[in-house]
Amino acid sequence: MLTDISPKLPMRDKTVTKKFYINKLGFQEFGNTDFEHYLMLQKDTIQIHFFEFKELDPKENYGQVYIRTDDIDTFYQSLLNNKTDIHPNAHLHVKPWGQKEFALLDPDNNLLTFGQRVH
Predict the structure, then answer these.
(1) pLDDT attached to residue 28
(2) Which one, out of 16, 45, 83, 94, has a CA that is 20 to 30 A from the CA of 72?
(3) How many helices (H) and strands (E) does the chain have?
(4) How far apart are CA 101 and CA 66, in angstroms?
(5) Beta-bridge partner residues of 107
(6) Within 13 Å and on the Cβ side, how many CA atoms surround 4?
(7) Beta-carbon count within 10 A of 71 CB
(8) Model-level pTM?
(9) pLDDT tens-digit readout, 81-103
């Protein structure tokens, strides 16, 4: 039985990635070991892992993750309050498929889309 998923995304600079996710999105580092070329972060019940890819060209990075939430309005507002850049074409909006969504790009151009089902 499948119970969870932890996406692995590329990062060029571990310090920059860690700072963005912790300071802008409210994630925390987890694990009791710091791996040189790998980063594990969590927020609430989700984890995202990152692997070092120093030669990554952000313009050619198509990494994407869809993250579901049960309080998208509060999370979105917290990002705005924290001056986190929202993708210019993906501000909070109800989509035709019944999801309220927004998206942003991390420092390596990984697209993070956040969504909540609209009842």
Answers:
(1) 96
(2) 16
(3) 2, 8
(4) 10
(5) none
(6) 6
(7) 10
(8) 0.94
(9) 999 999 999 999 999 999 999 99
